[in-house]
Amino acid sequence: xxxxxxxxxxLTISGMGLLLGTGLGYAAVKFKxxxxxxxxxxxxxxxxxxxxxxxxxxxxxxAEAVVSGSAPLTACSVGGAAVVAGISEIMGVEAxxxxxxxxxxxxxxxxxxxxxxxxxxxxxxCQAAMQLAGGGSKACIYGCLxxxxxxxxxxxEAIEFVDGIVKINREKCTACKQCVGACPxxxxxxxxxxxxxxxxxxxxxxxxIVRGNCKVGCISCKMCEKACKFxxxxxxxxxxxxxxxxxxMCDECVKKCPTSAIVSKTFVKETKA
Length: 273
Prior knowledge:
By secondary structure, the protein is an alpha+beta fold. It has ten helices and eight strands. The chain has helices at 3-30, 37-45, 59-68, 80-91, 126-129, 149-153, 178-182, 207-213, 223-227, 252-256, and strands at 101-105, 159-162, 165-168, 188-192, 198-199, 233-236, 239-242, 262-263. The protein has a two-stranded antiparallel sheet with strand order 1-4. A two-stranded antiparallel sheet has the order 2-3. A hairpin with a 2-residue loop joins strand 6 (233-236) and strand 7 (239-242). Helix 2 crosses helix 3 (59-68) and helix 2 packs antiparallel against helix 4. It is elongated and about 100 Å long.
């Protein structure tokens, strides 16, 4: 191959490269999609926990969904009211009032209060413990097994072990819902942060059975229903349930509950000697 042929080939290839480069450059300019500046602004004020509590894989995905209009502005429970206000300002809409929530464990069947069928020694995983006879070592099949599946998924150190069961630290909880999904017995729910009246039981058994399993279980006597003047407490499926939209925290249901299954920060029953 002579020098002229080589030179021609080189020039041809260079020309094609230049032509393609020019075409790609033109296409990039012609079909450029302008990035929505709101996306980065929203991402900057999100907490970066990537906990999934908003229903999206992470903060980036949530920010994109907000900008596209497919996600509510109030979904980031970790960021709370401050983040909602910030997102609302960026999106140019009026901020929506957000009720702060925290997780709550509907069981007080600790080592002192509850009856156990056998001693469990195995994986610190409630799902694994439930595979054993009777759905776990606790006599109440609805009770907290205390193996810590919820503890293992909490990124905010908001779950503590207390006398064989788990408790939520209200001041650390961000209501990200990870513990809610991790509990195989559906014992954890979200409740209003400002309301301190809660039912610490989730049993669906009849009162007689509950009495044999736990000292502080709901026996569905309906004394709480009768005591409430605001129609905020009802016994459904053998267990008391509080309607937080109606509850005034008068503590009358707490005072009347014979087993102390309903608790309140503002009223504590005296322990009998």
